[in-house]
What does this fold into?
Amino acid sequence: MRLAALLNEIEQSSGLVLGVDLARRLGVPPAEVAAMLTALRASGRLGTEVAVAPAMGDCSSAGSCSMSCPGPGECSLVIDVSLTALEVRRSETRVS
Amino acid sequence: MSGANDRRIAIAGCPNAGKTSLFNQLTGAKQKVGNWPGQTVEQFSGEFTVADERFEIVDLPGAYGLVAVSAEEAIAATYLAEERPEVVVTVADASNLAGSLHLVAQIAELGLRQVVALNMVDVAERRGIEIDEERLSAALGVEVVRTVARRGVGTADVKSAIARADGRQSPQLVIDYGPVVERHIGRLVEDILARPAVAAVGPARWTALQLLAGDAAMRTRIGALPAGDEVLAAAAADRDGIAAESGFAAEMVLAERRFEWITRLVGAMTGSQEPGLLWSDRMDRVLTHRFFGIPVFLGVMWIVLRVTADVTAPYLDWVDATVSGPMSRWAVGLLGLVGADGGWFESLIVDGVLAGVGAVLVFVPVLFALYLMLALLEDSGYMSRAAAVMDRAMRAVGIPGKAFLPMMVGFGCTVPAIYATRTLDSSRDRLLTGLLTPFMSCGARLPVYILLAAVFYADSKSMVVFAMYLLGIAVAVLIGFLLSKTALREDDPTPFVMVLPEFRLPNTRTVWALVRQRTGSFIKGAGTTILLASIAVWLLLALPVTGDGGFADTEIENSAFGAVSKGVAPVLDPLGFGEWEQSGSLLSGFVAKEVVVSTVAQLYAVDETAAEDAPGFAADLADVGTSFLEAGADTLRALPAVIGLDFIDLEDDTPTALQAAVRTSFEDSSGGRGQLAALGFMVFVLLYTPCMAAVAAFRQEFGTRWMWVSVIGQFAIAWAGAFIVFQGGRLVGLG
It folds into this structure.
């Protein structure tokens, strides 16, 4: 159960862990970890958050941006971190 | 657009597999946009014709699989299961075949006719991945077509494959999930087939698999059917049975078996092994390394700020000379032509608008360079590495893992950074991160640092600016540590994995678009917020409250602005900048940080242009052009300085009237310790409330009470920081 081992490794880390770190810990190439992460994602055990342009809500009510605000997700001042965060989703029925 | 007899085709795929590119290639201009029923998610559809047969095609939202996690995946899964299109074109990323096959396999298990577009084969080939599509086609029972959708390669083949698949018998893929799971699947299939309403949902094996995987959408759908509750109860019993017999949750066992099946398939299909370590992975070993990561990050920041603060100096001088010289003279000349010179209106235009807005526009080259460097880092993929490095440092002191995202955004602007806290899960994490983001030095503070560093730290300008950025991070980490140990104790953190994008050469178009948008936003701000603030400051400066001067004809210290600023000045006196002009500029900085610079210009340099001789329009124009070319040449000669090769001193040591006035003011207010006072002033600007917009955003997100905690807290920290710098510096004999 390689996926279970990977999930367990993620859950053992407090907060964020990098794919490259998981690869190092499990002793497998990063590409293999990426494939396993996709498998967990496709099975619904990991949720996705793309941290490219955070939802900003109604910026126009915030003040000086009101005259030139291009709208949520398109603010040119947002620094694009371009990464995907896969978050562990809890399963009530999980045994181990 | 589509007729009743059109065949319905759906296009599916994982995010970033090239689904939209293929959709665009297939439909060309024949597209329409709407919303999915009951959703805010956009629905794109279009049509195309093959051999006189017309097909309507729907672009499904990106999905990794059919066990829906996001709203977009739920739409894709529901559409495929309920609408059962004639053919599904599934776009698979050939460079990550294993990642794409989960969706392909699940659609095949659903029993839909499928064409697999093996996309980005060019990228796969460059990585040495050879895929035998004929064997893949035979294993999946579907037609596989090689495409490079971005360039339109293979589009015609996809159309032909769709035409061939249409009407053909649809084979249902059966993956062997092992004896335990198969026994429970068999039992659940019997339960489903015994209830006609549930059996009509789709292939019974597919329904059983979705229920065992815990798919919420399927549970809801079955629960609404007659006898659906009985099937749900049976499915729950089977899930428990699998968990008890295997020791793992049912969905984990299903995922594991499907993963093994895909791994074996990919191993058999690819002529070469999956790559071990890509060069991007090798770089990550250094860039995200526990020990090397932080020095590399600091080195990158140093280069960014060196380019920003030093290399742009010739252009900064050029804009400054142009705005304060020829442009001001032309404005006065124009006013003279229309008979509006010499009065309060001329004062408003020259002393208010040109001095204020012009002083901010001077920093356009600086912001341009900063945004260029940031865009290069973003598009290369380094920013996510920087985020990871920052995360490690912050997690070590109890700040939530995902706090680094809003904090990185805070380097650009605090307002979206505060809204970005919505990406955090708990209210505690959101609030804590919201309280910390204002300490990250936004772009608007940069002009203040540059102005003062040029006056007091001309030889180490970039070092001082660099120190400000580092101090902002350090204060955020310190405050975060204190809060997480006291008022905002840490919850049990949600574990998550960060997937870094591969490194790549920055794309010129993307970089230019980012730089243009951001610099444009800064210039727009100068034309709106800064313009209004400059006029407001001018009005307050023109309005006499003491003395015997009239409107626009009063000593500025007798003006309304002077009176308010004098009231605040004693609070700042222990910090070494207790002159009313200094407190006044900090007060105006509540509007936006660039206003500090425009106010300083209005307060100190009101007579700068009037004193100069007018050489004439043609001579001015020629001078502007010549000095622009000289600035370009000087910038090129300054580039080696970024890596420490200072061949030539390009700094113009002659201070401008504004710089001289600023120096005198700080020397006077600090008892001859101008350098220390200026450093304290920069620390104050870094740490006090970023702007009114940020305060409004904070109130919107966290309420009025926390807004006041934030504003007062930031002021107290800023005051304490500047006090430590100035008084501490004095104690140890600096400045």
Observations:
- Chain B is about 60% helix and 5% strand.
